[in-house]
Amino acid sequence: MKFAQKLQHLSHNVFADMDTAKTKASAQGINIIDLSLGSSDLPTPEPIINTIKESLDDHSSHAYVLHNGTLEFRKAAAFWYTKRYGISINPDTEILPLIGCQEGTAHLPLAILDPGDYALLTDPGYPSHEGGIRLANGQIYAMPLLAENQFLPVYEDIPKDILKQTKLMILNYPHNPTSATATIEFFRKTVKFCQQNEIVLIHDFPYADIYFTGTPQPPSVLQADVNKEVSVELFTFSKAYNMGGFRIGFAVGNAQLIKALKQVKSVIDFNQYRGILNGAITALKSPEETVKKTVKVFEERSHYLVKSLKAIGWDIPAPSATLYLWAKLPEKCKLNSVDFCIQLVEETGVALTPGSGFGKSGEGYVRFALVLEPEILEIATQKIAQFFKDKGIL
Predict the structure, then answer these.
(1) 12: pLDDT strictly greater than 70
(2) Do residue 101 and residue 229 come from a single domain?
(3) Run of H or E including 200
(4) Which of 69, 117, 102 is nearest to 176 (CA)?
(5) Average pLDDT taken over every residue of the chain
(6) How many CA atoms, within 13 angstroms, populate the side-chain half-sphere of residue 81?
């Protein structure tokens, strides 16, 4: 059977290798401490769950939900956005429900790119961003994110001939996997760059709420593109409200881009169950303290793990946002990031994510996800210490 050539780009990745390694270790009786996935272990807040439960008893909520049926959700999201960022949003034309941010980064390229067009992606960056470009038969120019540049792209380094063929850029700050943040000045520079080069800007913004004490609130890209000329921003309820399994988010921004995304979406899927939309409305109307409690948990875990790893000789910068630590492998480590992670999980059960899984510039790093309580993080740290000792790494 012959399949489309585009599937060749999607056929293999290091995450599949890690899944195989975890399965192998588990089959040998090793207990897996999985710090490789950014899936929150915290419960969805009770008021949100109660709203969804109440919806289940309303039989009218069991039908398909077409676009008109999402109006109350769109109004709530627009009100939340305006209250938070000071940007007026039209709920009819400038906002659209999504099945999480990932739907936006997968479907928008289908509306923007013709075969052969370029998209600018960060390297390292979230893997699904590449998937959307590949499905649209687009080409990718990887913008290296380096520590010396605070893990921000350098637009001056992009070749002129690439820029002439570029129609799309995808950014993501606070950033997965590096946990870097960006300022409003950076976004103003980015918006101006995109305007000058006629590039659509997608900002994937799942960690809008996950920032720590002393860190300014991460800016929205629309605060730099107040007239919504080139930008769309993607929000999710997965992180701040621990609703990953409910698959609910939204896109907000340029009306033409929202319309184009809606056209693609309309031939691929309907919207979520109405009860999930109702639960998301409850989330948007919940007190700020609801989210702050979640953020506090991740901040405490971050401080704890950084301190514990430093105690065994692995000194890692403390992140100011996201659910992750971005850890440079020790100088004495002769393993690449994939081999390091595979051997670590097979020998200790501690599962991390290889930096190379996020792009070429991620080599030499691994990512920790802060998705387990401190007691488990301490066990993981001690297992890593023994692994280092056995391998002569530290």
Answers:
(1) no
(2) yes
(3) strand 200-204
(4) 102
(5) 95
(6) 29
Q: Other C-beta atoms within 10 Å of 52: how many?
A: 21
Q: Say how far apart CA 166 and CA 180 lie, in whole Å.
A: 25
For position 270, what pLDDT does the model report?
84
Host domain of residue 293: 5-44+289-391
**Does residue 357 contact residue 13 with C-beta atoms inside 8 Å?**
yes
Contact 70, 277 (CB under 8 A): yes
Helices (H), strands (E): how many in the chain?
A: 12, 12
Residues 58 and 29 in one domain: no
Q: State the maximum Cα–Cα separation within the chain, in Å, rounded to a whole number.
A: 63
User: Based on the domain organization, do 107 and 241 belong to the same domain?
Assistant: yes
Q: What pLDDT does residue 11 have? A: 64
Q: 145 and 87 in one domain?
A: yes
* Distance of alpha carbon 107 from alpha carbon 263, whole angstroms: 10
The order of strands in the sheet holding 200-204 is 95-98, 249-253, 231-236, 200-204, 166-171, 118-123, 139-144
Residue type, 91: P
Q: Which pLDDT value is given to residue 289?
A: 95
- Mark whether 38 and 74 lie in a shared domain: no
Q: Are residues 112 and 136 in the same domain?
A: yes
For a pLDDT cut of 70, what percent of the chain falls above it? 99
Over residues 170-199, the pLDDT tens digits come to 999 999 999 999 999 999 999 999 999 999
Q: In total, how many domains does the chain have? A: 2
> 119 falls in which pLDDT band (50, 70, 90)?
very high
Mean predicted confidence (pLDDT) in 74-91: 97
Instruction: Give the residue-averaged pLDDT of 151-159.
Output: 98
SS3 assignment, position 367: strand
> Following CA atoms 296, 52, 258, 103 in sequence, which dihedral angle do they give, to the nearest 10 degrees?
70
Q: Are residues 216 and 309 in the same domain?
A: no
